[in-house]
Design a protein that fits this description.
The protein has 228 residues and is an alpha/beta fold. Helices cover 40% and strands 12% of the residues. The longest helix has 18 residues. Helix 9 links the parallel strand 4 and strand 5. The chain has ten helices and six strands. It has a six-stranded parallel beta sheet with strand order 3-2-1-4-5-6, with helices on both faces. Helix 2 crosses helix 3.
């Protein structure tokens, strides 16, 4: 296969997971649905609390403590959090992402992932999204497993060892932590613009070293920024 970069080096594109490949708000809704179903199944509530949980979240309240108080139940917050973090998520890739990943593979690019979070949570997301055909196991860096979180350089240097003599790009969504390390390492950095559904707001009012080299308004624009 022809090299996928203009200078003869292989292009490797590394992705963030949450709010990049799928919308994290969908994971939150999935978790609240699983928690509500658990409370109903155990007979602790008679009425479905799902929409009340969504409302409390939207108002910025402590969802689990408020739910306990309003419903007269006494479930430890740790129990709620365990259900939240370990449930099997009902989530889907963001529109345009499957086509983007297919096109990158077709053009001979290597693919990788750097994501912060707990192992069981992130692994469940990856499994539910059926991402294994795109991302080799050795090219998935999860902070809890790896031992460091973004913006640690080590999470990205891993790919220098995995793909020697390649050129790298990182596609993510959060300028506050996503691009500092890859910028330091000479990677190309691309921010996927929030379409209004991201959990964490995008703040571009930061020092230059935190900012991406390009901002893609849609997934279609990512290919054009990669020069492949």
């Amino acid at each position: 296969m022809m090299p996928s970069s203009f200078d003869g080096r292989r292009q490797v594109v590394v992705f963030d997971l949450d709010d990049t490949l799928y919308k994290e708000i969908d994971y939150l809704r999935s978790a609240y649905r699983a928690i509500a179903d658990d409370l109903l199944r155990r007979g602790l509530l008679r009425e479905d609390p799902y929409w009340r949980m969504i409302e409390l979240y939207g108002r910025g309240e402590n969802v689990f403590e408020t739910l306990n108080r309003e419903c007269g139940i006494d479930i430890p917050v740790a129990t709620y959090l365990s259900l939240y973090r370990t449930h099997w998520p009902r989530i889907a890739l963001t529109f345009g992402i499957p086509a983007l990943l297919d096109e990158l593979k077709l053009r001979g690019c290597g693919l990788g992932m750097v994501t912060d979070g707990r192992s069981v949570t992130q692994r469940n997301k990856i499994d539910a999204l059926r991402l294994h055909p795109y991302f080799p196991a050795s090219a998935v860096v999860i902070s809890e497993e790896f031992g460091s979180s973004k913006p640690a350089d080590a999470n990205f240097v891993h790919f220098h060892r995995l793909y020697p003599d390649a050129r790298f790009a990182y596609v993510a969504d959060n300028p506050q932590k996503d691009f500092l390390a890859p910028n330091r390492l000479g990677w190309q950095t691309i921010c996927l613009r929030d379409d209004g559904r991201n959990i964490h707001p995008q703040n571009f009012d930061l020092p230059a070293e935190y900012l991406p080299h390009a901002v893609a308004e849609t997934t279609d624009q990512i290919i054009s920024y990669l020069n492949i």
